[in-house]
Write a structure and sequence with these properties.
alpha,alpha-trehalase activity, three-stranded antiparallel beta sheet, 16 strands, globular, single chain, 613 residues, mainly alpha, three-stranded mixed beta sheet, glycosidase, 6hp_glycosidase-like_sf
Length: 613
């Protein structure tokens, strides 16, 4: 059966309550650990506590508590942003570590004294810097360099089909960046976790770079693609081991390995990481270890607030998933930005819902984009929890296929068959809910209600705007194996306006947000290019290669002119890196390195083909 009437998923539903380790009465302050210097401050903090404890009930969604250290560092962050004339990166302050031998209550008391009498919470910069230096270690000091044991400067059979010496030399330089980005969590994090916002992990990590001083969930898929090209199999397996440890601890893979990221996940690509490593190494032990972890993650995405049911005209229920962060306050890493963005809302409930939608956009990995706005480009119309996203459900369909494949390897044929049926049901949902025959694209679906109850599909609820994510399903064999479908999608992509001089645009709207035009991102290039290249259609293969070569050439030019691999590109111009969003352009860069190497592995580079345009 590809669809079913008023019943549950083909995968039996287990209780998820043990995995949602949250409190509906989350507090943003820990009163037991606060020392007050004035009755006024006590009143203010009591009002903040009352506000925070009501939040979990007001918008009826779950909230995961943060740590006392994170709560305090938000205060330091706010003071820093009020004190400096040139605004510092707010994430720097939330990544600080409490310096020995000080304890948190002492630091709080000194900080209370420092800010007493300040109407706007600002203080003289020299006093703030003295306080931070005395009580905290710098951001990033709890992550130390690690020399990867499987790194060699010129691996055997590395990019054998790259025949152009200029391209090959650059590819070696990109390969060598893995050493720069390789780190391990310091012993101090393991010994005193409450002094850090960085979370302990069992294996070394590859960080994205720049301000991103921790491992990130979905980034790791493209990092692993690059590591496998670089023959760094041990490092790749270690990244998966780390993510599995987070799932075992929290019930889901966190957005990133920080205490302030425990309230959300990111696009679920863990099964794809395991699948890619197995394809190269045939490591059956890794597969067997991964299965129970993936089952736990699968349940997270297919239960509670993440689960939605869309009913078609025949009364068939289609079970799909959405992003839904377990948080309804300003994000600690960007709390001032979020507070300012919400300042136009008059009621507490409106602010809570807005903050949840912002955090949910962060869970999507695409923060921020007009894709999540009811009335783009108005940022205050962010409504991410009301979107049933195409790409999330592609990742989950892939997860179902991956788990079925792994269970077959492990000898669990019954389990494998259950997940094959689940994948068939979700594929049917793609045809019913997302596919738009006229556009020849899969379109995100706007919910009419809060998503807690089944709702009937309406054609007008499809988001008709053009995004790169509309073409994400072509990534997996369920869709790119259908030649008739691929022909339609190729024509639609060619006519979409998304194909730009340096790659695929994220959207057609230049909103100033980083997941919109003119930016293009490595993950979306790889998903679409890989899907087109895997199809048996000649014109799809040719288009894939053309897009990949544009991306590689522009990445090369940016690298040669700036000295860095960048997080994103401005694909509307050749040789330009991307911008926009709430932070400065970042370099390093994990997933960009991975996609460059993966594209070179896939398409090679002939000796007589110049990398210059």
């Amino acid at each position: 059966m590809n669809s079913h009437k008023h019943n549950t998923s083909p995968i039996s539903t287990l209780s998820f309550s043990s995995h949602y380790k949250y409190s509906l009465f989350a507090t943003s302050l820990d009163l037991k650990r606060q020392r007050f210097t004035s009755p006024l401050l006590l009143i203010v903090l009591f009002l903040c506590l009352s506000f925070a404890t009501s939040m979990g009930v007001s918008d009826s969604g779950p909230v995961v508590q943060t740590t006392p250290l994170v709560t305090f560092l938000q205060r330091v962050q706010l003071t820093a942003l009020r004190s400096y004339s040139k605004k510092p990166d707010p994430k720097f302050y939330i990544d600080l570590s409490l310096k020995l031998p000080h304890d948190l209550s002492t630091a709080e008391s000194v900080f209370d004294d420092l800010t007493t009498g300040s109407r706007d919470l600002s203080v003289p910069v020299e006093k703030l810097e003295k306080f931070v230096h005395e009580y905290f270690d710098d951001a990033g000091i709890d992550l130390v360099h690690h020399e990867p044991e499987d790194f060699v400067s010129d691996p055997t059979e590395f990019l054998a089909n790259v025949e152009n010496d200029q391209v090959r030399e650059w590819a070696r330089e990109v390969h060598c960046l893995w050493r720069t980005l390789s780190c391990r969590v310091s012993d101090s994090v393991i010994e005193s976790p409450d002094r850090h916002t960085l979370l302990p992990l069992p294996e070394p990590v590859i960080i994205p770079g720049s301000r991103f001083r921790e491992v990130y969930y979905w980034d790791s898929y493209w990092v692993i693609k690059g590591l496998l090209t670089s023959k760094m199999f041990t490092t790749a397996k270690g990244l998966v081991t780390n993510l599995m440890s987070l799932v075992e601890t929290y019930g889901y893979a966190l957005n990133g390995a920080r205490a302030y990221y425990t309230n959300r996940s990111q696009p679920p690509l863990l099964s794809s990481m395991v699948y890619e490593i197995y394809n190269v190494t045939k490591d059956e032990e890794l597969v067997r270890k991964a299965i129970p972890v993936l089952l736990k993650e699968y349940e997270f995405w297919n239960s509670g607030k993440h689960k939605v049911v869309i009913r078609d005209a025949s009364g068939n229920d289609h079970i799909l998933s959405r992003y839904y962060a377990m948080w309804n306050m300003p994000r600690p890493e960007s709390s001032v930005f979020d507070q300012e963005s919400a300042s136009g809302f008059s009621s507490t409930l409106e602010k809570q819902r807005f903050h949840r939608d912002i955090a949910t956009a962060a869970e999507s990995g695409c923060d921020f984009s007009t894709r999540w706005m009811r009335h783009p480009p108005n940022f205050t119309t962010m409504a991410t929890t009301s979107v049933v996203p195409v790409d999330l459900n592609v990742f989950l369909l892939k997860m179902e296929l991956d788990i079925a494949f792994m269970m077959e390897i492990a000898g669990d044929r019954n389990g494998s068959e259950r997940f094959v049926k689940a994948s068939e049901a979700r594929k049917k949902a793609f045809e019913t809910v997302f596919w738009n025959e006229k556009a020849a694209q899969w379109l995100d679906y706007w919910l009419s209600s809060n998503g807690d109850e089944p709702e009937t599909w309406k054609a007008e609820n499809q988001n008709n705007n053009v995004f790169a994510s509309n073409f994400a399903p072509i990534w997996i064999s369920s869709f790119h194996s259908d030649e008739i479908l691929v022909k339609k999608v190729v024509k639609a992509l060619e006519n979409s306006g998304l194909i730009a001089p340096a790659g695929i645009l994220t959207s057609l709207t230049n909103s100033g947000q980083q997941w919109d035009a003119p930016n293009g991102w490595a993950p979306q290039q790889e998903l679409i290019v890989t899907g087109l290249a895997r199809s048996g259609l000649k014109e799809a293969n040719e288009l894939a290669e053309e897009i990949a070569r544009r991306w590689i050439r522009s990445s090369y030019r940016v690298y040669k002119t700036s000295g860095f691999v960048h997080e994103k590109l401005n694909v509307s111009e050749f040789g330009a890196y991307g911008g926009g969003g709430e932070y400065k352009p970042q370099t390093g860069f994990g997933w960009s390195n991975g996609v460059i190497l993966a594209f070179l592995e896939e398409f090679g580079w002939p000796s007589d083909l110049s990398i210059e345009p």
